[in-house]
Amino acid sequence: MSFQVLALETSCDENAAAVVADGRTIRASVVASQIEVHRRYGGVVPELAGREHLRSLAAVLQETLHDAGCSWTALDAIAVTQGPGLGGSLLVGVNAAKAIAWARGLPCLPVHHIEGHIYANWLDPARAQHGGAPPPLPAVCLVVSGGHSELLLMESHGRLTRLGGTLDDAAGEAFDKVARLLGLPFPGGPPIERTAAAARHAAGRLPRARLPGTFDFSFSGLKTAVLHRVREQPLQSPGPLARAFQEAVVDALVTKTAAAAAAYDVRTVLAAGGVAANGALRNALRERCGERLGIEVRLPPPALCTDNAAMIGAAAFYRRDALGADGLRFDLFSTSGTHSIAQPAPPTG
Ligand code: KG4
Ligand code: ZN
């Protein structure tokens, strides 16, 4: 008998639901993107996001259960993203999940969004490439999304240590802001990747923040360097600058990931979050951690890097014993604050 979770994810601008069996098999996964609603504003408008979630949730749920060929009685638990994210958006998913759980007499499992991203590496499309084996632990996990950029050490399920992270912008945020400077649409990651791939060369070498002795990143200097370049010379075409920017971000992320993987002697390098869909980052991780260091590199398929509910269902399964202790009393949280999933690393040296 499998353990089937119905998961909801509404932390930002994707309204998503999924049915996941035993934390690994996706029976159905539906993602309704609101991107067209927000694009004209150049970013996600929180009030509009909350309203759109309310509008689409019932249809997304229905489609998910239909695709899974699954009735309400076949479910063992409901999982939902508790935070971090936009308050009004989280509210819709959390209240819907509690209502379903209460009506069906099922446990409701609140999942941390970042932990969800990591568990995309346990889902079946990723598994098929590795003979069905889950990622061997310990692992270093690079989490790079629109709101987070962190390097975590995962020793076992629920045992995460924060090794470092961004001091300013998240990697995805840097992609989005630089895209705007280059006149490319929101969200900036995919158009920067496409434009960079089409460029024959990079517009020189942009500065990288080295931050020696840490596993931290910083992207604000890089963003300012792009701004200066754009101001100095009107752009003929954004390609070479997009390429130089992407090279600098990828170099910074992979340098720290490889250093952390070597320092902690891990078996696996994992990546997660929207920016992990980036082909240049994926290739560099495979080359510099996989080929050079001989460490297994696991990457979720690009569609499972960006926000989805299947990853929330996977995390809920592996963490089900620890989650849900509060019954339906848990509340959402919009910022990480005291709700970090990871312990800070002990001081070294
Ligand atoms: O994980 P995600 O879907 O949502 C958050 O939790 O933030 O990540 C969204 C971010 C956006 O900043 C987007 O520009 C970036 O991921 N992104 C990419 C790519 N696809 C999405 N960045 C670089 N290359 C991509 N192909
Ligand atoms: Zn996310």
Any chance you could write out the topology, listing elements then pairs?
Elements (H helix, E strand, L loop, with lengths): L3 E6 L4 E8 L3 E9 L1 H5 L6 H23 L8 E7 L3 H18 L3 E5 H7 L4 H5 L10 E6 L4 E8 L2 E7 L5 H11 L7 H10 L21 H13 L6 H25 L4 E5 L6 H13 L4 E3 L3 H4 L4 H9 L24 E2 L5
Parallel strand pairs: 1-4, 4-5, 6-9, 8-11, 9-10
Antiparallel strand pairs: 1-2, 2-3, 6-7, 7-8
The protein binds 5'-O-[(R)-(carboxyoxy)(hydroxy)phosphoryl]adenosine (KG4) and zinc ion (ZN).
Describe the structure.
The protein is of the alpha/beta class and 349 residues long. 41% of the residues lie in helices and 19% in strands. It is built from twelve helices and eleven strands. It has helices spanning 35-39, 46-68, 87-104, 113-119, 124-128, 171-181, 189-198, 220-232, 239-263, 279-291, 302-305, 310-318, and strands spanning 4-9, 14-21, 25-33, 77-83, 108-112, 139-144, 149-156, 159-165, 268-272, 296-298, 343-344. Strands 10-9-6-7-8-11 form a six-stranded mixed beta sheet, sandwiched between helices. Helix 3 links the parallel strand 4 and strand 5. The model has no long low-confidence stretch (mean pLDDT 94). The chain binds 5'-O-[(R)-(carboxyoxy)(hydroxy)phosphoryl]adenosine (KG4) and zinc ion. 5'-O-[(R)-(carboxyoxy)(hydroxy)phosphoryl]adenosine binds next to helix 6 and helix 7.
Question: Characteristics of this structure?
Answer:
alpha/beta; five-stranded mixed beta sheet; 12 helices; binds 5'-O-[(R)-(carboxyoxy)(hydroxy)phosphoryl]adenosine; binds zinc ion
